[in-house]
Automatic annotation (TrEMBL):
Residues 14-128 form the MgtC/SapB/SrpB/YhiD N-terminal domain. Residues 176-378 form the DUF4010 domain. It comes from Methanocella conradii (strain DSM 24694 / JCM 17849 / CGMCC 1.5162 / HZ254). Its main location: membrane. It is found in: Cell membrane. GO terms for cellular component: plasma membrane. This is Membrane protein. It is a multi-pass membrane protein. Keywords: Cell membrane, Membrane, Transmembrane, Transmembrane helix. The chain crosses the membrane at residues 59-78, 85-103, 109-126, 138-155, 170-188, 225-254, 260-277, 298-317, 323-347, 359-378, 384-406. The keyword Membrane applies.
Length: 407
């Protein structure tokens, strides 16, 4: 039996009951037979089983939980009702949420409870997305899942080059994360379509901000009335690019956050306000963005990323800080996400200090904005060119100024 103080035991009783009831609340709302009380009791049972005597009590209670779920499902089938397989699975997971609380793993228990409740509550949305996926997209997702979750764990988690900058697991993790962001965004755009310039510009920019300016530049040649809408879309694609790069830093290198939150925050706010002023009339606009979730795209991105890491490292070793900053700026014209990821990789390997890495990431974002200017010029629309340059220029000026003050 686990020795606990009265306070610890009471706290675990309260937390397990609360989490079980939290999960059960959704089942109650969905009018299932197992609801708040059943889920609360299951979670409480799991917690008590670990406190009484491990592992026999836990095993016995788990067997009882499985038997209960089987009987509940059989009853549903006999009554020609829903067999409640999802509810049964949720009850089983809820039992082990209680087990986690019993052994003192409070944070994982809370996270799992939230995930279970979220999965239960978005049934309709998940089914709709699954139905609309094409066979090609499903196959690509499965193949990529194998590469991401089968290959990733067996990759060496240490540098394999003489300079100590190429860590295969770190590089692959960044490929998985960026490709995952692109795929989620692709599914959102495919599901809800193009609701207007703001929607198209932002969500399209998460996947490929360059595609947005290229698309609108060609559109306004035939439809000059879309000029102001096109300006807002292009600027919002820059905002989305900043959000994506900042998110990469938050997930992969939180130590960069104090250096980047203000410059990126200022750029995002200014860009958003500038775009808002130019949204005069929302019109559906379709931007053709192919699914980024494929083995080919992942390997292409991984190759580009690896090349950028090698070139950036070479620039650091040969030219020092200045060489890396120049490399980041040039890399950002090709892919600011890749440039950001390479800076993070070099920071984690100890090749760069935090200030240099942060400034390199900012410069990569600046060059991603700059590269849109010549693309906007293709439109031959002076107002569009001027407004895109003005909005992008203000974002860059604000970002550079705040970065110089902070970094």
């Amino acid at each position: 039996m686990v020795e606990l103080t009265l306070y610890d035991f009471t706290f675990r009783i309260g937390l397990s009951t609360a989490l079980g009831m939290f999960i059960g609340l959704e089942r109650e709302w969905a009018h299932k037979e197992a609801g708040i009380r059943t889920f609360g009791l299951f979670c409480l049972t799991g917690m008590i089983s670990t406190v009484i005597y491990q592992p026999y009590a836990t095993i016995a209670c788990a067997i009882f939980a499985i038997a209960f779920i089987i009987v509940m499902s059989a009853h549903g089938i006999s009554q020609r009702k829903d067999p409640n397989l999802t509810t049964g699975a949720a009850l089983f997971v809820t039992f082990f949420v209680g087990v986690l609380i019993g052994i003192g793993q409070m944070v994982p228990a809370v996270i799992i409870a939230i995930i279970v409740t979220a999965l239960l509550s978005i049934k309709t949305e998940l089914q709709s997305i699954a139905v609309e996926l094409t066979a090609q997209e499903v196959h690509a997702a499965v193949e990529f899942g194998i590469l991401a979750f089968v290959i990733y764990p067996i990759l060496p988690d240490k540098p394999i080059d003489p300079w100590g900058v190429i860590n295969p697991r770190t590089i692959w993790l960044m490929v998985v994360l960026i490709s995952g962001i692109g795929f989620v965004n692709y599914i959102i755009m495919k599901k809800y379509g193009s609701k207007g310039a703001a929607y198209t510009g932002f969500f399209g920019g998460l996947a490929n901000s360059t595609a947005i300016v290229a698309e609108f530049s060609s559109r306004i040649k035939a439809e000059p009335a879309l000029t102001m809408i096109a300006v807002s879309a292009v600027i919002l694609s820059d905002v989305a690019m900043c959000v994506r790069n900042l998110a990469l830093c938050i997930f992969l290198a939180p130590s960069l956050l104090p250096k980047l939150i203000v410059p990126y925050g200022v750029m995002i706010v200014i860009g958003g306000l500038f775009a808002y002023r130019h949204i005069m009339k929302e019109q559906p606009v379709t931007v053709r963005i192919q699914s980024p979730f494929s083995i080919r795209n992942a390997l292409v991105f991984g190759t580009i990323f690896l090349i950028m890491v090698i070139l950036s490292a070479a620039a650091v070793f040969e030219l020092g800080r200045a060489g890396f900053l120049i490399s980041s700026f040039l890399s950002g014209m090709v892919s600011s996400a890749s440039a950001t990821a390479s800076a993070i990789a070099l920071l984690q390997s100890g090749t760069l200090d935090i200030n240099t890495a942060a400034m390199g990431i900012i410069l990569a974002s600046m060059s991603s904005i700059i590269v849109k200017f010549p693309l906007a010029y293709v439109s031959n629309n002076k107002k569009f060119i001027a407004r895109v340059a003005l909005g992008g220029g203000i974002m860059m000026a604000a970002g550079i100024l705040t970065a110089i003050l902070i970094i």
